[in-house]
Design brief:
Blueprint (H helix, E strand, L loop, with lengths): L10 E4 L17 E7 L3 H5 L1 H11 L3 E8 L5 H13 L4 E6 L1 H16 L24 E5 L12 E5 L4 E5 L8 E4 L9 H20 L5 H23 L4 H20 L4 H12 L5 H19 L5 H6 L10 H12 L17 H11 L3 H4 L6 H10 L7
Parallel strand pairs: 1-8, 2-3, 2-4, 4-5, 5-8
Antiparallel strand pairs: 6-7
C-alpha cells in the first residue's frame, strides 16, 4: 500500500537565459539580499556575480556579498556569514555557485533566524540537538553547476573541522522559495568539476529510487535523470559549450534534487562524507564515484530486482549478463575518465579504514534503515577496503 507525503514548494525558473528574469520576477522574498558565493573568485571572473547584483538592483533589491565559502564549507564560514547577514540588515539570502555556496546560504539562513551557532541545531554527532524555534530566513538559489540539486531540496551539508564531522541538516523552511536554473551559467565549468558534479546528480537519482521511502513521482524523475546523465555527461565532457548537453544535465540535477525532497540518499552518501571529513580537499562527487562501484555491487548482488529499472535507464538488461546496473555504472565511470580513481590515489590507506567506519557510525542518521538490504559493520568496512584500489570488472 502506497503511503507518502509530498511537499515541494520551491518555484523553479528553468532554462538558458533565465537568469535575466531575476530583474523582473515578482517572487523575490525581500528587499536586501546577502549574496553567498565561493571564496575562489570564479563567480566574479565569470561575470555572474556582477549580473546578479545588477539584476537585483533593477528589481529594487539591495545586496551585500559574502564571498567566504570553500568547497566542503565549514562551520566557521557559516557562523561568520550569519553575523554578516544580521550586521548588514539583510532579509533574505541568495546562494550563487555550486552546492557549497547554496548549502551555506541555507545554513546561514537558519542561524541568522535563530541565533547562536549553526552547530547548535545539528541533531547528530557533536551537534547541539536544538530544534530551531523560527523558520530559516528566505532562500533564493542560483546554481552554476549541475550536481547537488540543492536548488530543489532542503538539505545542507557542513563540516566541523576540529571534530572531522561532515553532517546534514534540513527542514521545510530550508527549501528555497525561488531557484533560477540557467544552464548558460554552467558553460564555463571546468571538465573535472563537470564530471564530479554530474556524477553527484546521478547518484542522487539512483539512491533516492532505491531507498525504501521512494515515491512514485520521484521514481519517474530519478529514472529519467539517470538516463540524462548517461547520455549527456560524456557529451559535456567532450565539449563544455554544448548547451543542449548542459541543459539536459541541469535538469537531471534539479530533478534529482526534487527526488531528494521526496525521498533520501542512502548510506553511500554518509560514507563519502566520512571521506571528505577526513580529507576536505577530496571533491564530494569524486568520493562518491570511488565508493560507488563496491557499494552498488554489494546491493545489486543482494537485491537485484531493485536495480532492473535503473539498469534499463543505463541501456543495460539482465539478458546481457549478471549485475546489469553495475555493468552500466562501470561504463559510465569509464566514459567520464574516472575508472582509475581510488582512495589510495588521494592519500587514504588501509590504516584509515577503522576511523572511516567509526565516523560513519558516529554520524549516520536513518540511512541504514532506508537502504533496501541490511548492511553490517563488516560490509561498510569491506566497501571502504575495496575502494582503496581501482575496482576491476
Amino acid at each position: 500500500m502506497l503511503q507518502f507525503n509530498y511537499y515541494m514548494p520551491t518555484r523553479i525558473i528553468f532554462g538558458p537565459g533565465k537568469l535575466a528574469e531575476l530583474k523582473t520576477t515578482p517572487h523575490l522574498p525581500g528587499t536586501k539580499a546577502l549574496i553567498v558565493t565561493g571564496a575562489s573568485g570564479s563567480m566574479q571572473r565569470a561575470g555572474h556575480l556582477d549580473r546578479v547584483k545588477e539584476y537585483l538592483a533593477d528589481n529594487g533589491v539591495d545586496s551585500v556579498v559574502y564571498a567566504g565559502i570553500t568547497p566542503n564549507p565549514t562551520l566557521d564560514q557559516i557562523d561568520a556569514g550569519a553575523d554578516e547577514f544580521l550586521a548588514r540588515g539583510c532579509d533574505f539570502v541568495l546562494g550563487l555557485g555550486g552546492g557549497s555556496p547554496i548549502d551555506s546560504a541555507k545554513a546561514i539562513a537558519v542561524t541568522a533566524a535563530n541565533g547562536g551557532s549553526y552547530w547548535d541545531y545539528i541533531a547528530r554527532g557533536t551537534g547541539g540537538r536544538k530544534t530551531p524555534e523560527h523558520p530559516a530566513k528566505p532562500i533564493v538559489a542560483i546554481p552554476t553547476t549541475a550536481g547537488t540539486g540543492t536548488e530543489a531540496d532542503p538539505w545542507i551539508v557542513v563540516s566541523r573541522l576540529e571534530t572531522q564531522e561532515k553532517l546534514g541538516f534540513g527542514n521545510e523552511s530550508t527549501l528555497p522559495v525561488l531557484s533560477i536554473v540557467d544552464p548558460e551559467l554552467m558553460l564555463s565549468l571546468p571538465r573535472n568539476q563537470t564530471a564530479y558534479t554530474g556524477m553527484d546528480a546521478f547518484y542522487h537519482a539512483v539512491e533516492t529510487s532505491l531507498a525504501t521511502i521512494h515515491q512514485p513521482g520521484g521514481d519517474v524523475l530519478a529514472w529519467d535523470a539517470v538516463r540524462l546523465v548517461k547520455e549527456n555527461l560524456p557529451r559535456a565532457l567532450e565539449d563544455g559549450f554544448d548547451l543542449e548537453a548542459r541543459t539536459n544535465l541541469a535538469w537531471a540535477s534539479t530533478a534529482a534534487g526534487i527526488c531528494q525532497t521526496l525521498s533520501a540518499s542512502l548510506l553511500h552518501h554518509v560514507m563519502e562524507h566520512s571521506l571528505s571529513a577526513l580529507k576536505p580537499e577530496l571533491p564530494h562527487g569524486l568520493g562518491l564515484v570511488i565508493l560507488s562501484r563496491a557499494f552498488f555491487r554489494t546491493l545489486e548482488e543482494r537485491v537485484p530486482e531493485r536495480f532492473f529499472r535503473l539498469a534499463q535507464s543505463l541501456g543495460e538488461s539482465a539478458e546481457q549478463g549478471e549485475l546489469p546496473f553495475s555493468r552500466g555504472l562501470a561504463k559510465l565511470i569509464a566514459a567520464c575518465g574516472l575508472a582509475d580513481e581510488c582512495l589510495e590515489k588521494h592519500g587514504f590507506t588501509r590504516g584509515d579504514v577503522p576511523e572511516l567506519v567509526d565516523n560513519v557510525y558516529a554520524t549516520v542518521g536513518k540511512h541504514f534503515e532506508i537502504t533496501p538490504t541490511p548492511l553490517s559493520r563488516e560490509d561498510v568496512q569491506a566497501i571502504f577496503e575495496s575502494s582503496l584500489k581501482p575496482l576491476s570488472g
